Structure formats: C-alpha cells, structure tokens
C-alpha cells in the first residue's frame, strides 16, 4: 500500500476543496439565473392576471409585451421612486399599481389595476407569504377579488381614500368590500395596505388627472 506524505495529503485536500467550491459556484450561478427568470416570469403572470389575462409561465414575455407598454418609476423627493405599469387592453388604457403590506402572519401583496381615470378599479390580485388556508388566504380567491371591480379609490375631491375591507359592507358604497369570514386580521391588513400604499401615489394621480382635464 502506497504511503502518502502529510504535504501530499494537504495539497490533495486543498485541491479537492477548490474543485468542489468551483463546481458549487457554477451550479449556484446557474440556479440563480434560473430563479431570477422564474421570479420575473411570475411577476409578469401576476400583472397580466390583474388585467384579466391568463398566461403560462413559459412564453409569458410576448404576451406581457402585448398588453404592458411601459414601466414608470415616479420620482419622489428624498424617497424611493414609485413604480406603476401602463397597459392597454381592448382599446382601453390603464395603470397597475403594486402594493405591499402586512397580514396576520406575514407579508401580503396586491396589484391594483385602474382605468385611465386613475380612480376606478378594473381588476385586482392578491398574494401572501403565510396567511391561514381557508381563512386569511382567501384574499386570493376570485370571490374576494371580484368585489373590488368598479370600486373607486378617490373621493369626490380627488383625494385617495382607497377601498376598505369591512364586515357587512354596503354594496352601494364605492369604497367598501366585504371582509373575509374568519380572517379579520388579514382583512384589516389588506385595508391598511391599500390605503397606505395608494396614498403614496396621490401627487402623481392628482397631476395626471389635472393634465387630462386640461386637455379636454
């Protein structure tokens, strides 16, 4: 049996460790790119779903490009820019505003589609990190989301008042929808998210509506 010196064993171990580290780096780099692509494709899927378009993850890019024309980053003084997306569907243009807030157990998210008046909701989708199945997680259901269609985020003076998620909502109130049964905390979180996040767009909404009125 061949005897190996300590120096040989050390160099062999270091070389083996270097090869393994290189292979892990290559694999991690490849997976990272794939993960980033999956995240990007899922984001496009969610935006399309918000305007009522169902698209597969594979091949979503051309469908997204067909409907979404521009991603805007609206500057704010001393703050991060606000993001919104411009879309066109069946001859009608509009906007999608992404929002993030807190539910009962973790983050909740929504994409809010608005008509070109930047007031009337034409679609909405929700997602979450860890809300309770059958309770708070029901914010993703069609039954919950469809309530928002036709509701308005502005009051008569053009101020953002959003849409509140409340128990026993008044169907005639343009700023109310019914809460999730058994999901009070998640419903409250959704209400707070929509109000807080949409209010951040107040200046942009006001300026765009003023510009549109001047053009009429």
Description:
By secondary structure, the protein is α+β, with helices and mostly antiparallel strands. It has a domain of 146 residues. 40% of the residues lie in helices and 25% in strands. The strands form two sheets. A five-stranded antiparallel sheet has the order 1-2-3-4-5. A two-stranded parallel sheet has the order 6-7. A hairpin with a 2-residue loop joins strand 2 and strand 3. Helix 1 packs across helix 2. The chain is elongated, with a radius of gyration of 24 Å.
Number of helices: 5
The structural class is: alpha+beta
Distance between the termini: 94 Å
Strand order of the largest sheet: 1-2-3-4-5
Helix fraction?
A: 40-55%
Query: Quick one: how many beta strands?
Result: 7
Main sheet properties: 5 strands, antiparallel
Provide the residue-averaged pLDDT: 91
- The unreliable regions are none
The shape, in one word, is elongated
Secondary structure layout:
Blueprint: H1 6-50, H2 60-67, E1 68-76, E2 79-89, E3 92-102, E4 107-115, E5 121-128, H3 142-145, E6 164-166, E7 176-178, H4 184-199, H5 202-215
Parallel strand pairs: 6-7
Antiparallel strand pairs: 1-2, 2-3, 3-4, 4-5
What are the defining features of this structure?
7 strands, five-stranded antiparallel sheet, alpha+beta
Condensed summary:
The protein is of the alpha+beta class. The protein is built from five helices and seven strands; from the N terminus they run ααβββββαββαα.
């Amino acid at each position: 049996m061949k005897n190996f010196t300590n120096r040989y064993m050390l160099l062999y171990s270091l070389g083996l460790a270097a090869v393994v580290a290189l292979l892990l780096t290559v694999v991690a780099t490849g997976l990272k790119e794939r993960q980033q692509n999956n995240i990007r494709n899922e984001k496009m899927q969610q935006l399309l779903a918000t305007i009522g378009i169902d698209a597969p993850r594979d091949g979503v890019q051309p469908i997204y490009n067909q409907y979404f024309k521009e991603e805007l980053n609206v500057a704010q003084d001393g703050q991060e820019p606000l993001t919104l997306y411009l879309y066109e569907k069946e001859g009608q243009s509009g906007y999608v505003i992404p929002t993030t807030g807190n539910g009962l157990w973790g983050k909740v998210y929504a994409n809010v589609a608005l008509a070109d008046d930047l007031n009337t909701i034409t679609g909405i989708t929700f997602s979450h990190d860890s809300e309770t199945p059958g309770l708070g997680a029901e914010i993703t259901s069609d039954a919950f989301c469809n309530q928002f269609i036709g509701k308005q985020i502005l009051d008569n003076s053009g101020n953002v008042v959003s849409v509140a998620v409340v128990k026993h909502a008044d169907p005639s109130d343009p700023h109310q929808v019914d809460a999730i049964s058994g999901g009070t905390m998640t419903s409250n979180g959704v209400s707070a998210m929509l109000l807080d996040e949409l209010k951040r767009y107040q200046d942009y909404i006001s300026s765009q509506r003023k510009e549109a009125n001047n053009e009429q």
